[in-house]
Amino acid sequence: STWGSSLKTDHSDMPTFAPRYISLLTSARWVVVAFWTCITIAAVYFGPKLIGSTSNQFAAPPGSEAAHANTALAALFPSMNPRATAFVVYIYSTDRSNVLIPQVEAAEFAAYDAVTQWTDPACAGHCISQFESYYTLLAAGLPASSAAGLVSPGNVSTIISFSLEIPFTDSGSSRFATFAKAAIFVTGAPQIRVEISSIPSFLPVMEHAIARDMALMDSIVLPAALAVLAAVVRSARLLVLPLI
């Protein structure tokens, strides 16, 4: 019919993209394979490294219960930073001897100097607040009875506490935790041990384990998946096309 014939279109003089695209892939097939192989290897190597650059920090939706709770906390504790991360340094003696010795005193003041001078772009220069330890409280003029709250019965252990003005979900807190582990120690007293407790202290270990597991998983799964796909399609060109 006249109406049916009007729907027919002549494609004889129109450019055909698909044949030219396939011809290009065929002529440069090994270049394409090499390119996507390099991309896959780079993704396996660099992908796990992105873990340390991400953050789970998010703001509570306006009007939600979480937002109301944050507002109430800010009103009741105006000096508290809800985004700060608490650190506790545990100093103890392995033989249950007295930890209130000159070596621990020197270590507490050295820890204070080290952590309060640490800077990071995430906290705009002011990173540490509320640093408290037995000897620093005494140096500030507090009575021994007040500072004794940081020492265990029998003086076999003591703690140092301070806040990092960076959320524990930010990568800056992990950088500080790594720094603190190397900066806080006691010398000249082999019976004294130092442990640092905080969420960021565990994050580097967790990130390393996740990166190792992801690399191991990809090294096993990707070759097996490509091998199965190659066995099914039986064509190198069809195997490469999904990657493009």
What does this structure look like?
Helix content is 51%, strand content 11%. The chain is α+β, with helices and mostly antiparallel strands and 244 residues long. The chain is built from ten helices and four strands; from the N terminus they run H-H-H-H-E-H-E-H-H-E-H-E-H-H. Helix 8 packs across helix 9. It is elongated, with a radius of gyration of 31 Å. Mean pLDDT is 82; it is low at 1-11.
- Shape from CA axes? elongated
Give me the strand/helix succession.
HHHHEHEHHEHEHH
- Count the helices. How many? 10
Helix share bin: 40-55%
Measured distance between first and last alpha carbons: 43 Å
Indicate the structural class: alpha+beta
How much strand content do the residues show? 5-15%
Q: Give the overall average pLDDT.
A: 82
Which blocks of ≥5 consecutive residues have pLDDT under 50? 1-11
Going across the biggest sheet, name each strand in turn: 2-3-1-4
Total number of strands: 4
Sheet having the most strands: 4 strands, antiparallel
Supply Rg. Answer: 31 Å
